[in-house]
Amino acid sequence: MTGEVDVIVIGSGFGGAVMACRLAEAGARVVVLERGRRWTPEQYPRKPEDPWFYHHSQPHKLDGWLDLRLLKGMAVALGAGVGGGSLCYSSVVMKADPEYFDGGGWPAEITYSELLPYYDKVHAMMGVNDIPAGQHTHRFQLLQQAADKLGYGDRFRSMPLALTFDPAYHYGLPDPLDHKHSKPFTNPQGKRQGTCVHLGNCDIGCDVQAKNALDFNYIPAAENHGADVRPLHLVRYVEPVAGGYRVVFDRIENGQLVPGSLTGKRVVISAGSLGSTEILLRSRDQYRTLPAVSQTLGSNWSPNANFLTPDLYADPAKIHQGIGPTISAGVDFMDGALGGKRFIIEDDGFPNLFLNAVLAKLRSAPLSPAGWALRTAFQRGFNEKNPMDRVMVWLGAGVDAGDGRLHLGRDWLAPWKQELKLDWDVRRSEGVIDAILDLHKRLSEASGGHLQVPVYWRLFKNLVTVHPLGGCKMGGDAGTGVVDHRGQVFGYENLYVADGSVLPSPVGRNPSMTIAALAERSARLLADGIA
Ligand SMILES: Cc1cc2nc3c(=O)[nH]c(=O)nc-3n(C[C@H](O)[C@H](O)[C@H](O)COP(=O)(O)OP(=O)(O)OC[C@H]3O[C@@H](n4cnc5c(N)ncnc54)[C@H](O)[C@@H]3O)c2cc1C
Ligand code: SF4
Known about the structure:
The chain is α/β, with parallel strands linked by helices. The chain has a single domain (5-530), classed as FAD/NAD(P)-binding domain (3-Layer(bba) Sandwich). The chain has helices spanning 14-25, 112-126, 138-149, 218-224, 272-286, 316-319, 352-364, 369-382, 430-446, 455-460, 512-530, and strands at residues 5-10, 30-33, 66-71, 74-79, 156-158, 185-186, 192-193, 228-230, 233-241, 244-253, 256-269, 307-312, 329-338, 341-348, 391-398, 405-410, 418-423, 450-451, 463-465, 495-497. Strands 1, 2, 8, 9, 10, 11 and 20 form a 7-stranded mixed beta sheet that branches. It is globular. The chain binds flavin-adenine dinucleotide and iron/sulfur cluster.
């Protein structure tokens, strides 16, 4: 064996952080290569001129918080940094439905009961809690009342959140959002955190560290067992070498891309649905270093039927959209009771600071139809006549057709470059989107809102997703999947994929817990081989 290290993990989101942690605990020498920065609370973006965005093809110029990718018919929001999507996610951590594993292309070994112990591990590590009874946000109450009015009270749920609450906290405290009400504590991984004081900044980094993100649990646990986490390493492709694999990357250093490589006995690709699929596509089709990767690579991609609809309320006090955990509650139709369409609706607040930055970015971006549509939607919904504190967002997630295809194609402006492209026909998923939108409308009417159906949907049937899934799906063999039930790539021993790309079909619910549970299982099986 010639590998410099035992395991190289590419990416540090829900798949990568879990793999790094459990393999380091098992005694492996682990190196994590992560394309984004390592963020500290003092560096979280706050002002419009701060580094909000990551540019996937020019990360040496823009290596900020969020990677907003505009694909054909689809905008995809992704985390970039040590902690991956957990940095910017809304902390909703929930299991998939048991039936999810009955069909949908899963290999026979993956069942709900098989995953249950791994879900339990994730639950414990992420510190999952419900919002305490005395701390329900205005959005929580608005959704509950609207659901009751529509006769859906029994479908209303408090969302399980990876946040730490102080049961004694309440909005009646003097100056309730003051940081002084946050109670400091040291978590089991030795990191300093505080309890939630409802600042509403969950998606842009919690100022009091109440958010139990991966950089507060799995990643420090990995480092406590010797893992070496290297930020600002953008992996390009992987090639087999004697006794392992070479991972070829560019290091982002002083505004430059500096080429480099590292060899390991085993490699775990955990760069997310778009990132892992792109690394394998480039390895198979561009650099031809992994020519035998399954022809199913890129297929069964899904936006998890995400649909976001802004809603305008005359009285900002009714929603206080920016106060409290970004998502707090949901109405659950995953049983298909509404016309057989399976989905869940959640309330979604947003940090106003972030929306200002998005608008600034869209104003300065070159205009594609999708970019124009997004910009118009944002401007229409959030201009000065309609201040943002009167707007909340309904988020829908559900089971779409899951039939997108990622592939490499020529860049029109620079034809010598190969870019990640998406083929996605919305028509086969329109039914579930229409069902989500219809319920958004009815919830809005029931709560006195004025729904703003985004222009990018009305005119172009374009979508925005924060839950990209699939591309390197699990399957029974190379004819039906890219990886087996352990996450090992068919045809390449000791090469693994662990992240949202391995899901063979949309989960409908918020996916992070299922991604992490699958990674826990892959890590367990791989660690048995290492030990
Ligand atoms: C605003 C927002 C809110 C969300 N809210 C929720 C929620 O409440 N609940 C929920 O379950 N899900 C939520 N999600 C989705 C959730 O974040 C993702 O499903 C999850 O992070 C996916 O995990 P992953 O391991 O597949 O990939 P990621 O977490 O995206 O991790 C991939 C990592 O790989 C890195 N990477 C990518 N390419 C490369 C490369 N070439 N080289 C090196 N590193 C690379 C990335 O920077 C990233 O750190 C939200 C997402 C967003 C954007
Ligand atoms: S609501 Fe505020 S304090 Fe609570 S977790 Fe989110 S950002 Fe932190």
